[in-house]
Amino acid sequence: MKISAPRGTSDILPDQIAAWQNIEQISRSLFKAYNYSEIRTPVFEETGLFKRSLGETTEVVNKQLLEVKSQRVTNAAEDAQFALRPEGTAPVVRAYNQYDIGREAFLSKFFYIAPMFRGERPQKGRLRQFHQIGAEAIGRGANHPLLDAEMIALSVSLLKAFGVSDFKLKINSLGSAEDKKNFAQWLRSALEGKIDHLSDECKGQYERNVFRLLDSKDQACRDLIQGLDIGTRHLSDSGRAYFEQVKQGLDQLGVIYEVSPHLVRGLDYYTHTVFEVSYAGLGAQDALGAGGRYNGLIEQLDGGDRRFPEPVGAIGFALGIERILLALEAQGKSVAGKVSLDAFVVAGKPEFAADVFGIVDLLRRQGIAADMDFGVGRPVKKQFEQANKLGAGIVLVLGEEEMKSGEVSIKDMVTGAQARVGKDRLVEEIKARIVRP
RNA sequence: GUGGCUGUAGAUCAGUGGUAGAUCCCUUGAUUGUGGUUCAAGUUGUCGCGGGUUCAAAUCCCGUCAGCCACCCCA
After folding, report:
1. CA distance A149 to A135
2. Among A13, A39, A97, A132, which residue has the least CB neighbours within 10 Å?
3. Architecture of domain A343-430
4. Region A241-262: what's the mean pLDDT?
């Protein structure tokens, strides 16, 4: 029985890797420009971390955590429950607290490019193992509304740098934790008595997380919410002023956005600014990325810090790499490309294999991407076919005549031109002919 | 977790009860030191898996797994 990759996972094969490396490379250089440093956290964490941060009632924690079962529980300490991380923020905050990074650093800016795991039913743009590019800014120095603007601008800049166009940025403010609580209360009472004729799903949302009703796709539910005319009524004066400054920051940077009072997030920890970037051509899973502020999370995860006058603030976002690639594909901008080889060395006779091996090694030491045919005693023709398949720009031939004269034949595979060169001048002759894109 | 559609060669797909096919890829040859084009020949396979109906199943039925799409949720 053939074993295939687990449900909802996919292999990234060598012919697809160029697009991924391109995305990663662009990300790293842009993060550097914005002064974000890479952080790598474990692929699994104690389940409690996600329950406490994302919220016990959220879908992600309730139904989508992939738990890790240890076969060897040797003591009580190892009896903890583990889960593959469903998102990147909670682990980063955990590390931030664990090493008391905030003691030294006024503001810490992290980024990660890493796989995430959720036990969902796969569909377009939704996998069980998927990859996120994320950024988090945490610290006493993370309370300025201009940082919100920077975060949003950074996520937009990344997408543009990847070549994605026609995406839509929506922003909203949920207000402070207190604003959120008040708003939830207000929403509940405003909807009380009116939810009886709604669908079971809407009722469920009303119970679990009223905010979800705001971006419901259910028409009856939409109508009901529309009728409430929410606007910014849920925000306190200070919350509203903060949001205004975020918008001004975005205006200053020329970032185009749409304020959407109905934009909410599925994770409990968000406060104040939330945003989402979507691309309509992706189908049902149209979010390329999303993020927001999560000021209370550090303390909530026991990072309670009374040593400094300023509270610890935090904001972050994550982009889905697979979805970015889908968007690029939809726009006809996917990066193809294969690993190209500079030179392939052919043995005219099987007994020259060792000499060929030596030439290949010599070239590699000079930084020339070189290879040879490792088939046993294959005819020259087959070796050339191999060279062609590998996309070698140059083929070197070491045959009987070359062996006698101490030369090597060098053939340009594009023009077909061939010449003999002394071994001492081989490297410079090759370097002169290498054409790299 | 719910629903719809699909599963046949490495890939894309045809085949609706009677001995498994096409194209591309791949292999070999035309070319006894030279690829990419062309021409000729050849191999593709538990018909996703398990069970049932039938003289006979890729085809019909049931189950299961996987993929796709949507709901839900989200990146």
Report:
1. 13
2. A13
3. 3-Layer(aba) Sandwich (3.40)
4. 94
- How distant, in Å, are the alpha carbons of A70, A101, A105, A204 from that of A108? 34, 8, 6, 38
Torsion of CA A58, A93, A324, A265, to 10 degrees: 30
- Mean pLDDT estimate for chain A: 88
Q: What residue has its CA nearest to the C1' of B27? A: A382
The closest alpha carbon to A185, from A214, A211, A222, belongs to: A211
Could you tell me the distance in Å between the CA of residue A13 and the C1' of nucleotide B60? 40
Which CATH homologous superfamily contains domain A14-175+235-330? Bira Bifunctional Protein; Domain 2 (3.30.930.10)
Contact A345, A398 (CB under 8 A): yes
Which value does ipTM take for this structure?
0.86
User: Per residue in A92-112, pLDDT tens?
Assistant: 999 999 999 998 999 999 999
| Cα A432 to the center of its chain, rounded Å | 39
Which strand B nucleotides have any atom less than 7 A from protein CB atoms? 1-3, 26-28, 31, 33-36, 46, 65-75
